[in-house]
Specification:
The complex is a heterodimer.
Chain A: E1 11-12, H1 14-28, E2 32-36, H2 46-51, E3 56-58, H3 63-75, E4 79-85, H4 86-92, H5 94-103, E5 109-113, H6 131-135, E6 142-144, H7 149-161, E7 166-169, E8 175-176, E9 191-194, E10 199-203, H8 208-220, E11 225-229, E12 232-234, H9 238-246, E13 250-257, H10 262-273, E14 278-283, H11 292-298, H12 303-315
Parallel strand pairs in A: 2-3, 2-4, 4-5, 5-7, 6-7, 10-11, 10-13, 13-14
Antiparallel strand pairs in A: 1-8, 6-12, 9-11
Chain B: H1 7-28, H2 33-50, E1 65-68, H3 74-84, H4 124-138, E2 144-149, H5 156-167, E3 173-179, H6 188-192, H7 197-203, E4 207-212, H8 216-223, E5 232-237, H9 260-269
Parallel strand pairs in B: 1-2, 2-3, 3-5, 4-5
Helix pairs in contact in B: 1-2, 1-3, 1-9, 2-3, 2-8, 4-5
The chains are: A alpha/beta, B alpha/beta.
Chain lengths: ~325, ~270
């Protein structure tokens, strides 16, 4: 499959399934509430607000109190989904996420909307590419970055049922459903998207379908790449990483900074357990303005870019 | 109905808590005794005169909540929780020792009765606001009290919480400010002035009360009465280090620790 334009048929904005799932859950469980920082529309929560007006708590443009209120609502027996743009819920309220949610261990679900470079043209203030690096050391916090609409729905359902703090990293960039049969959502476990033994491509979120397309390109060249959907960033599936390292070469792909994110986590693991070449695809730092699609291509988050990284990794293979 | 017959108990507990906290700090050679002592009568009044709580059921959903936002004052908080029966007195000896449940700043996962983890300033009031919202939307009867330092009011997160609490008319929420007028290195007014705090909170939609924070009767008269029509802000005028002559009003006792001789002196005064 060639790199399809984000508007192509079959691609979905996962925010629609996020909010449909949340409304279904809220209908069945009165403890579920939503907390926002004036982000009702961008979190697609207008219909939730209509159906459950008392359970949509809009604190205004104030991220510190938004996250603190989430902790307090959990203390009061509610199950809060605190939803705001990824750049603000993490960066602006990072100490609240650390102290009030992760360290305190409250049953709060943080939802980073429009994460990564969904707001491409708005520039680095509105990009959320540092969030993995900021959140990974918060050991109590499960971090999940779903790859498609199906996984988004499953992750929201799992988060609601799970007792403990969770960060769901959602995107507004439309993605296709992954072509995998008999799927089962298993948090903390990588999902095999393509089988292969020549190298492993480890991806998450919006880049998983691109990694699958890259594997298809490589197959045409006789290279068999394993593709893993690493939707749980924290905690890492170490068994899958062990097996990935056994192929002898790894490429990581994420809509995030290459410093400290999924690629950083994989490099930490392999350095400690089984050193192999790791090529990290992602963003090097603050990015220039540009559309999401342009930035993806410019920085190699494309089937061709990922396939090229695979060749670099293979050339370094012992 | 609350009556002044609780006053002897509150005073007795406050004295025990001061002796206990100073002993903890002396033993650990760590702590924040100045802010412990300015807050002590407020905590004693809450735990022995105001809060509807049950140490045997610390997670009882309808309990009143007390959030200690000035989390560094664990000498005060732990001595209050111990006096109230949340944990055995033996545990106090472990204060700040390796792996102690009595961490330098409170952790709800270690200790029953701690409502949220605090330490970084400006966290307790937003969390208390969330607790109060949970009560408001479910029609629960519990009340939420939060104590901040006065220097802590310089943290902007408090004013985010004040806007939310005022806007939502959280009548079940009471903010108490330990107004000892000192932060760690200097006076609040010479650092980044807070006055007029009362006008500020009135403007944010609070009923404001100013009381002597070392007078349990005055504290009870506000904290012990039924909620009104707005959230409450109680400015409790206090003295940092209150009760020990050489600590009173001295900024360096923010995290000062006593020598053996100072400890003996304090124990003679705290009777």
């Amino acid at each position: 499959m060639a790199h399809a334009a984000p508007t192509a048929v079959g691609f979905q904005d996962c925010r629609n399934i996020w909010v449909k799932t949340l409304e279904d859950l809220a209908e069945a469980d009165p403890r579920i509430v939503a907390v926002v920082n004036d982000s009702v529309g961008s979190s697609k929560l207008n219909s939730f607000q209509k159906r459950f007006p008392d359970r949509l708590i809009n604190v205004g443009i104030a991220e510190q109190v938004m996250v603190g209120v989430g902790a307090g609502l959990a203390n009061g027996g509610r199950i809060p989904f605190v939803s705001a743009a990824g750049c603000f819920i993490t960066g602006r309220a990072l100490e609240q996420v650390k102290a009030d949610i992760a360290y305190a261990g409250f049953n709060v679900k943080l939802v980073g909307q429009s994460s990564g470079i969904a707001y491409g043209e708005l520039g680095a203030t509105h990009h959320s590419i540092e969030d993995f690096a900021w959140l990974r050391p918060l050991t109590n916090l499960t971090v999940i970055c779903p790859a498609d609409a199906w996984e988004t729905a499953e992750a929201v359902k799992w988060a609601a049922a799970h007792q403990g703090p969770v960060y769901l990293r959602l995107s507004r960039m439309p993605v296709p459903d992954l072509d995998i049969s008999n799927r089962q959502f298993r948090p903390g476990r990588a999902e095999v998207v393509r089988r292969g033994e020549d190298l492993a491509i480890i991806a998450c979120g919006t880049t998983v379908h691109l990694a699958a397309s890259a594997a298809d390109l490589l197959t045409a060249e006789g290279i068999h790449a394993r593709v893993l959907n690493f939707s749980t960033i924290n905690p890492l599936d170490e068994a899958a990483l062990h097996d990935a390292a056994a192929t002898g070469a790894i490429v990581t792909v994420e809509e995030a900074s290459v410093r400290g994110g999924l690629g950083g986590a994989v490099a930490e693991f392999t350095a400690g357990h089984r050193p192999v070449p790791v090529e990290r695809i992602g963003f090097p730092g603050f990015l220039p303005t540009g559309s999401t699609d342009w930035l993806f291509r410019e920085y190699g988050l494309s089937p061709e870019g990922i396939a090229a990284a695979a060749h670099r990794a293979l050339s370094r293979k012992a | 109905m609350l009556t002044n017959d609780k006053l002897p108990l509150i005073r007795e507990k406050a004295l025990w808590m001061r002796r206990t906290a100073f002993t903890m700090v002396h033993r650990a050679q760590l702590g924040h005794p100045g802010g412990d002592f300015s807050a002590m009568d407020i905590l004693a009044t809450l735990y022995f005169g105001v809060l509807n709580h049950d140490p045997k059921r610390p997670n009882w959903p309808d309990r009143d909540r007390f959030v200690m936002s000035k989390g560094h004052a664990t000498g005060a908080l732990y001595s209050a929780l111990c006096a109230a029966g949340y944990f055995p007195e033996d545990w106090l000896k472990t204060y700040m020792q390796p792996k102690s449940l009595l961490n330098g700043h409170p952790n709800r996962n270690y200790l029953a009765g701690v409502e949220t983890n605090t330490g970084p300033l400006g966290h307790g009031f937003p969390v208390a606001t969330g607790i109060a919202i949970a009560g408001q939307i479910t029609g629960a009867t519990y009340r939420t009290f939060v104590l901040t330092g006065d220097g802590e009011q310089q943290e902007g997160s408090n004013w985010e919480a004040a806007m939310v609490a005022g806007h939502r008319k959280l009548v079940n929420l009471t903010l108490i400010i330990d107004r000892n007028r000192l932060q760690q290195g200097a006076g609040t007014e010479e650092t980044s002035g807070l006055d007029p705090l009362d006008d500020k909170y009135r403007a944010f939609g609070f009923d404001v009360f100013e009381v002597d924070g070392h007078d349990p009767a005055a504290l009870l008269a506000v904290l012990g009465t039924a909620p009104g029509t707005k959230p409450r802000c109680v400015i409790a005028n206090t003295v940092k280090g209150k009760g020990v002559s050489f600590m009173e009003g001295v900024a360096s006792w923010h995290h000062g620790v006593p020598t053996d001789a100072q400890y003996e002196q304090a124990m003679k005064e705290l009777v």
